[in-house]
Amino acid sequence: MILKPIALLLFMVISLSIGGxxxxxxxxxxxxxxxxxFTRLLPTTQSAQxxxxxxxxxxIAIGRNADGNWFEVQRLRGTRIGWITRQFLDFEFDPIGxxxxxxxxxxxxxxxxxxxxxxxxxxxxxxxxRADASTRSATIDVxxxxxxxxxxEIYPDLTWVKVNYLGxxxxxxxxxxxxxxxxxxxxxxxxxxxxxxxxxxxxxxxxQRAQLQRLREFVISRKRVADDxxxxxxxxxxxxxxxxxxxxxxxxxxxxxxxxxxxxxxLRRYLPxxxxxxxxxxxxxxxxxxxxxxxxxxxxxxxADAVNAKVIFDATLLALDNLDQNIIPPxxxxxIPTATSGTP
Length: 344
Hints:
It contains 6 helices and 17 strands. By secondary structure, the chain is of the alpha+beta class. It folds into 3 domains: about 30-100, SH3 Domains (SH3 type barrels, Roll), CATH 2.30.30; about 120-195, SH3 type barrels, CATH 2.30.30.40; about 205-325. A hairpin with a 5-residue loop joins strand 12 (about 150-155) and strand 13. It starts with a helix and ends with a strand.
């Protein structure tokens, strides 16, 4: 008879903790996809450790850094625990929607990073940041894919965009970025009517799905290695004597051209994660190469690396299934147009 009130009280506490999330917060939930990691006081690996997170932990992203590659996070109950790199997280929201909460750490130039007009863009592929809106203009820096930068000015025909990349102001070809639907009060470059040579290219769903299937097959083949390796180290950890026939390291990278990125822009999000999983897998394979007796530390480390790789591959396959079912238009639907041109 005493257990029922206790159970009811526990249910109320859990309900309150879950119900305490606002709709805005729940929209920015992230999940940790590596075995363990530290958050940092500032968005840089050189900053002091702030807290520990573990695989499966759910957090709330409350902000992003100057280039959008770090998220400021808090626990579900509201405790802020610092910054964590996006590569360690799985999420379904558009990170452009997060506010910039640190526009200073890691700057290369003199201008603090702020969303002056409340609009940011996502970089689709690695691209040159140029001093002026021309492919003949000097390159200021090279911007990594998946970076998120504040939009400062835009050509009326969207062919060039002016941005702030880590404190340096410059121009990027418009067909290499993803623009939000609402450009708000972002200034249009005066006296510009357009740039010759740009055109809209329609990407049929069949081509997108072919790209998706190619990526899926690449991931599945490497996931099999991760599954086998995690099972091997689990048996060794249990004390079993297991036949040792180590495969070589996984040297082959996913070959993606500019055309591939244009046909499946989501590659910019998935390929860094996949490469991280392959790095984990190779770390586990390196321990296995000299067959023999392993220390407990070696076994624990190799097992954790194999499991981390497996988790990332599993999460990627789920994301690809979601993309296939819910985002890519069905055959016969109106394809998605994208702007294209020559050398960025």
